[in-house]
Hints:
Structural class: alpha+beta
Strand content: 15-25%
Shape: globular
Largest sheet: 4 strands, antiparallel
Number of domains: 1
Number of strands: 9
Distance between the termini: 61 Å
Strand order of the largest sheet: 1-2-9-4
Radius of gyration: 24 Å
Amino acid sequence: MKRLGFVFIAVLTALIFTGCPGTGSDPTPDPVTYALGDPGPAGGWIFYIDEADEFSWDYLEAAPSDQSAPQVWIEGGETQTTENGNTLTAIGTGQANSDAIIAQTDHTGSAAKICLDYDDGTYSDWFLPSQYELNEMYTNLHDQVPAVGGFSNDDYGYWSSSEGSANSARVQYFYNGEQNVDVKSYALRVRAVRAF
């Protein structure tokens, strides 16, 4: 009988400890999921979801506000170009475009640098969006009822990181949704994005 009591206590002790928090392996918490227009982890707005699993990230988040007063696409005049650096227009190319812009010889400053240097106090992985990333921002945040993101409706467009030519870059106008190219020396708005 003593032996049966000892076995019972041993089994009961094992069951208690395996059910106690912190003694076994805790289940991994479910990842946070976001919908378009939701506030993101950096306090900005979710404007793109990688539903096709094309990228190493799941979401694109726009910063909560513009990063500066209107800014030229690149300082040093229209002769500075990334035309040979192959800046692209597609979703998923904004980071590489931004890196190519600041990697130029004699680069002194640009809309891309403002975004790459942006640090909200928690995240510092921001970049200037590509043409189609910027269009998703317009479509999924600004062109909604109600609009979110605090984008300007004036005739200053927002720069993308996508080059148009040696002296122009691609722009998104938020007052009418149109995309165009503007001369790199024009001062336009800048809104950083991040992928996570």
